[in-house]
Amino acid sequence: MFMSRQFIAMLCICIMSATVQLKAQGGKTGTIAGKLADSSSKQVLSAATISLLQAADSSLVTYVISDDKGHFSFTKVDTGAYLIQVAFQGYGLLQQPVKVTGDSMVDLGTVYLKTLENTLETVVVKSSPPLVIKKDTMEFNAGSFKTKPNAVAEDLLKKIPGITVDKSGAVTAQGETVSRILVDGKRFFGDDPKQATKNLPPDVIDKIQVFDDLSDQSKLSGFDDGNRVKTINITTKKDKRKGYFGKAVLGAGTDGTYDESMNLHRFNGTQQISLIGQVNDVNKQNFTPADMGGGGRRGGGGSITASGGGSGITTTLAAGLNYRDTWGTNTDAYGNYFYNNLKTNTSTQSHTVNQLTKDTTTTNDQDQRSVSKSQNHNINFNIETRFDSSNTLIFRPGVSFSNSTPSGSSSSMNMRTNDNTPIYSSVGNTHSQNSGYSINGASLTMMHRFKKRFRTISLNLNYSGSESKGDGYNYAVNNFYTQNRIDTINQHYFDTSRSHTFSPSLSYTEPLAKNQILELRYNYSYLSSTSVNNTYQYDDVKLGFTSFDSLFSNSFKNTTTSNRLTLTYRLQNTKYNFNIGSGVQFSDLTSINSTKGTSISNHYVNFTPSAIFTYNVSKTKNLRFFYNGSTGQPSAAQLQPIRTTSDSINFQVGNPDLKPQFTHSVRFLYHSLNPTNQRSFFATINASTIVNDIQSSIVQNSSTGSKVSTYVNLSGTYNVNGYVNWSLPLKHPKSNLNLGSNISYQQSQSLVNGESNYTRNTGLNGTIRWTTNLDNYFDMNFSSTSTYNIARNTVNTRTNANYFFQAFSAEITYFSKNGWIVASDLDYSYNGNHSPGYNASVPLWNPAIAKQFLKNHAAELRLQVFDLLNQNTAVARAVTTNTITDTRTNTLKRYFMLTFTYNLRNFAGNQNQRRMPGFFGGDRGDGNGGGNRGGWGGGNGGGGGGGRRGGGPM
């Protein structure tokens, strides 16, 4: 293991050294320096983009940003002829030739820029500046960042300074998680960022804009309420907004493996239609759980399901449709539909250390097998109408349908570690059929802006509902050795649950002064949930499930109503924003147990304070503080006094006397960006504490090993988390270095056999990412992550544990001018301090070779090997109040895959390209040539003209 890590480290060092050597030109270099100022006022201009271009073809060499004093410089510039191009918002573009000879210092002196209204001459621009800073938005020119052939938007984002993309596809910008990615300012496939990053090719992208998006309320009132969302907007090229593009992949491999996918996009002005689909048996899923919709059901005993990733083996059939258009002049509409059909086969071995009492510890070794089949349909739509500048209506309905048939079997042996005595053994199997639907927050929002600035009123009506049904079987045989007793559970259960939530709100804002407003908000919520569980035991005499089991059956209804009134004061100026609010919430909870003939009624009063403070240290530095107090109601399952089990060993019972929990949360954020070198620093501290936290109370039987868990309200729960991130663009070699570090501390309280136990977890994490590409032929990404966890319990001290995780990743791609590609994707992970047999040192190596052909390299034939060393394994550890569980799950092993990929590009004005009449309808006329929009059966376009064929990267 140590030698493996040494090898990985040495490999990375050698590659990085080679990178530096490749960039070294060996010749003499010079320096270009200057200063920017306004031609009229003579004031210096900071944060302007200065690009160094080759004089011969205007290709970008590098670029810098002017500092606070207007200075800029290019160092280590090779001898030759160049163009200096200066771009700054509100000023005309300036180009100036310059020549570097020998070790010269080229001093441009003060370069004066003219404002746009004072600029008369026309400058022919052959290339856009790589970066333009527009107030709070950083806009990157996509053409300035080279990507590998036939890449996707995700590969482009990796090249942009300050943006990182991890293995799962999650995007981080300037240290903050990007939760929203727009395309041309509009949502693309809902709120799933991966659909844009994994499906759009870089050659249709014009700009990448990074900014903090305002809330809907802020956009309506024009007054910043401090609630921001880190957002990336992908703007497409104008000549790529009329036509279609996409990609199809066909793959067949050894051992019956296959991998096929497609995406096809039809852009026609404001109308965008996209189709995506995939079918494979190699654990690939490009959809998030939100896309897939679905809902959970009571799981079968011992059944563990896994989908995607490295655990289990999943067969996937999935498809998605996205629609976006502008109806008339004032209505935007977009919607999406997702379908997925999954089948997952999972085999898991686990080793659990369980502390029954202070002096008694047991181990449980378990073997589980499961097969889970599921289907999901998820539909979402959005209609936004602006009647005029003062009135807006937004309607957002969504619904999902799901069904699943999980089944599984398990066997386990439980031993007392003190004297190595067997306590019990268990074998069992489960099977169930589940179905349901969910209305995903159908909302109607009406907003009105009065003539008086900042005076607004908005009404929001929100409804959500769900229903799920389950029909399942539990069977288990348990042999209790210490009592010389065998128990058998053989159940057939029927579950039905329904929930309905109606939550309208009304908000009114009133300006108090030029930069102050007061908001009054009223929220009402009505929640009704019912749950009916009927369980029948097998009757050996009647040979059927005819014996009603009242212990495991229950009929329950919960009704919760709440009224909340909140008053918020907001102050805004150029240096800082300040929001402070306080509200009072009255809640009534009624629980009726029809089976037991009991009812519970509780009345609660909670205060809901909030505060937001934003301080702008400078144009590129800011400090933000958030505080929020919120109430959390117990769920129906936590309130039901019903005993559930799947193996007659582990029981769960609800508590109808639970109180709502109240959470205090604070968050500090600091962000700093140096426009001159584009280096950014981000730091955040999050802390929270929970009053009346809903936690578990566990009672264990030391002689039988059985466990009964219920829920109780406890205090003493809090967590603190600190995170820092540095983004460091490097010039030599041209690359991006990203450093991140995280430290966390969590404490929670629980009851173990009536004794209070505190669980304390400390986590340390560090991440390094380095991304570069060299001379348009090499594309490289390296990362390293180290995690160290410390788990401590005050009562169950024998479950205290320290464990370590280390991961390395190296992605290297070489592509030649004639279309040959050689790629290597190497991941190495190490799990330390686990139970014997569960420590895993896993090198996962996926090499590939490919050849691109046809015009613009539109086609590709690729041979790839997954897990060449045949070492793939999935190991995990879970720590709870009184247990430590190590698991090992089956994974895909080595296979070879041959894939054929075809990239389609066809845009308006490409007369020499073959068209696809009828697909998605004809062109929408541009107003000059008429044309019919056409339906699914076809139609003819008018207008056209301009543009050219979009083949490879622009």
TrEMBL record:
Pfam families (alphabetical): CarboxypepD_reg (PF13620), OMP_b-brl_3 (PF14905)
One GO location term (cellular component): cell outer membrane
Locations listed in the record: Cell outer membrane
Low complexity compositional bias, start-end: 352-365
Gene3D superfamilies per UniProt: Carboxypeptidase-like, regulatory domain, TonB-dependent receptor, beta-barrel domain
Molecular function (Gene Ontology), one example: carbohydrate binding
Signal peptide boundaries: 1-24
Biased composition (Gly residues): 292-309, 919-954
Domain Outer membrane protein beta-barrel residues, every copy: 448-902
Keywords assigned: Cell outer membrane, Membrane, Signal
Disordered, as annotated region: 290-309, 348-376, 915-954
Name listed for the protein in its UniProt record: Outer membrane protein beta-barrel domain-containing protein
Organism taxonomic ancestry: Bacteria, Pseudomonadati, Bacteroidota, Chitinophagia, Chitinophagales
